[in-house]
Amino acid sequence: MVVVLALGTVWTIFSRLPASATSNGVPPASPRQGFAAPDFTLDLLGGGEVTLSDLRGKPVVVNLWASWCLPCRAEMPAIERVYRDYQDLGLVVLGVNTTNQDSEADAAAFVRQYGLTFPIPLDRDGSVSVRYALRGLPTTFFIDREGIIRSVVVGGPMSEAVIRSKVEDLLKETP
Amino acid sequence: MYPYLRFGPFLLQLPLLALLAGVWIGSSLAEKEAARLKLPSGVVSNLIFVGIIAGIVGARLAYAARYLQVYLENPLSLFSLNLNTLAGLDGLLIGVVVATLYGWRKKLPLRPTLDALAPGLAAFMVALGISHFLSGDAFGAPADLPWSIYLWSEYRHPSQVYETLLALGIFFAIYKKPLGQSGTGINFWLFVALSSAARIILEAFRGDSVTWPGGFRVAQVVSLIVLLGSMYMMRVWAQSAETGGVRTATSLESIHESE
Asked: Which parts of chain B register pLDDT below 70?
């Protein structure tokens, strides 16, 4: 018993993480909780463009959607309500339309139908879908002020409570 | 990693499927072991079911309690199928407490019941390792080795494979019962001790460890304490079994027969 515990203690001490690995370690970019959100620059529906890394310092919700996707339709009004409630606190929502499997005309009609007021970046060549390892629509990434992904929700529709709870977590972190 | 399989409009979550398979195989093994130990297998099966349901409901309620105002405004969200809104650790604690109360109410003898659960828990740990492999969770530290896997933007230790292999080893050890006949509770503590030892070894290769100041990995320190506790319990219960202080299912049955 003593031998086992001594070995366990020695292994625990031996395998400690060095100080360099525990401080100032910036995680690599990967579409996963705890990693830096992969950067992108996309044109916006209606003109202009957005670069994710320019939004550093603000909590960001990136929602990938398509107009033909039924769960996307179901959750979009809740996302809009949460955006309206929290935008004054600095929340940014990017509703990335997967235009490579949709059409700009359908996306525009969708935005009008649901009265969406947040920016709609257009992923025309599907590069953001690839970088974010998109496996199903909708998929939503909750990104903190440091650009780190805090939560990923694959599939939907998300309830309003899910969105609000995740956003409140992001807003709780000090700017 | 294959986290999802698409069936038309439906996304099948493979890690969840692996966990469900683990629960199913684990409960079957526990029922079989319960019958072997002359425990009422139906009651043991219900104990597992009650524990799982209480754990899931408890995990959702614990999550909702943290965002009370949000859930008071949207009470139907309590029934959401979203796994992101479960407080895992709270759910585990609630499930264990409720299962314990159920077992106590049904007068299940503690030590044989724990032994009956041991092979099932060991099987579930194998499924957990497979689930981690499918989802990419519990990923390894960056490593340049011939058997490294490319995951989350880097070559890493295949920690999920290590985890599954260690869990398989523990499962076979528990199944073979190297410390003698079951019913004394020692096989359960052996499972806990081996699982803790495996975690101490494995954590060194993980890339997602939570650390304390000084670089100590929390999981290793906690596992070390659990290992100490489980070895102590094995010793104490072995001594009481030798002196005949244990009321196993067999001895309970003989008591009933003599009455």
From this structure: 1-4, 6-10, 180-181, 244-259
Q: Which residues contact A9 (CB under 8 A, 6 or more apart)?
A: B224
Minimal Cβ distance to B85: which of A11, A19, A162:
A162
CA pair distance A44, A34, nearest whole angstrom: 27
The residue type at A146 = E
Rounded to the nearest angstrom, the minimum Cα separation between B50 and chain A is 26
* Spatial distance between the Cα atoms of A106 and B100, rounded to a whole number of angstroms: 55
Question: Parallel, antiparallel, or unpaired: how do β-strands A139-143 and B154-156 relate?
Answer: unpaired
Spatial separation of the C-alpha atoms in residues B80 and A161, rounded to whole Å? 9
Check B217 against A16: CB less than 8 A apart.
Answer: yes
Domains of chain A with bracketed CATH: 24-172 (3.40.30.10)
Residue in chain A closest to B86 (alpha carbons) equals A162
pLDDT digits 0-9 by tens, A104-141: 999 999 999 999 999 999 999 999 999 998 988 999 99
Tell me if A168 and B154 make a contact (CB, 8 A cut-off).
no
Q: Do the chains contact at A160 and B152, CB–CB below 8 Å?
A: no
Q: Does B211 touch chain A (CB under 8 A)?
A: yes
User: Domain map of chain B by residue range?
Assistant: 4-39+109-258
Among B38, B100, B178, smallest CA distance to B186 is for: B178
Q: Does A126 touch chain B (CB under 8 A)?
A: no
| Cα A85–Cα A86–Cα A92 angle in degrees, nearest 5 | 125
Cβ-based contacts of B201 with chain A (< 8 Å) = 11
> What pTM was computed for the model?
0.85
Spatial neighbors of B8 by CB under 8 A, at least 6 apart, are none
Q: Does ipTM come in above 0.95?
A: no
> What's the CA gap between B205 and B21, in Å, rounded?
27
Quote the pLDDT of residue B213: 85
Contact A130, A141 (CB under 8 A): no
pLDDT (tens digit per residue) in A30-88: 999 999 999 999 999 999 999 999 999 999 999 999 999 999 999 999 999 999 999 99
DSSP result, A68-81: T-HHHHHHHHHHHH
Q: Residue B30, Cβ neighbours under 10 Å: how many? A: 26
